[in-house]
Write the structure tokens for this entry.
Amino acid sequence: MLTDEELELLTQAGKITAQAREYGRELLVKGASVLDVTKKVEAKIRELGGEPAFPAQISNNDTAAHDCATFEDPRALCSGDLVKLDLGAHCEGFLGDTAVTVNLGEHATLVKAAEEALKAALELVKPGAPVAVIGATIEQTIKDAGYIPVRNLSGHGLEQWGVHMPPTIPNFDTGDSTVLEEGMMIAIEPFATDGAGLIGEKGQAEVFDLLMHKGVRTGFVRDILSYIETYNDMPFCRRWLAQEFGIAKTNFALQELTRLGMLNSYEPLVERNNGLVAQAEHSVYVLDTPIILTK
């Protein structure tokens, strides 16, 4: 269980995350620059008194997650797009994680399927609730709407300075015997699709986190590693480093740190049959009366 001070930090982080999500939602319009919206959302988090818990990500159409703007990203949103905004904020490591899907086309029923699945799942959250039952509820709600869940994406636990932690909160009935415990911090995030219901990695990773700490030889790589270590093992992106060190040194350092086995990379996750994907997400503090942190 969290102390009163820790719960205050967690609650503050959730509020900042929710406010930044709603701010970002309004920016996701036809013609909007993916890079500009991303930067504005991250700046809003800082303006509100938090820090990004991970780089804001805008994943479009058949890309379900982990599509993060590049240093000089030229992309703009188009009429017909189905846009996912995934973001998080932290206060001294206590964090909120949330996502919203914005419909710029004719995808209202798919967006509603993800939102209704999240709503149904949240109603089940309490100590002792089996994660498999939550997953089954998400799956059935999405299927009742005429779509299918993405089976190899899931919600997850949250910890101080930890974004993707146990337990896994599935989007279908896995039969997992794990139950929620009082005091857990979790993120529930249904993904609904009209495709195959599976995603795979595709494209260049822009998001990373540090797996281990060890020495490196090249001077500027040491400088970049020291900068990465200020993120306290939480995810960061190529763009953040390039703003400080330039893109050429950043690319070299990321290649070197990857070669040394020091980094984990997060490639964009694309629906296997190129189906459209909608996402909805809230963070929750598990109590008998749960606190939806990012509502």
User: Anything to note?
Assistant: The CA atoms of residues 136 and 173 lie 4 Å apart. The first strand starts at residue 51 and ends at 60.
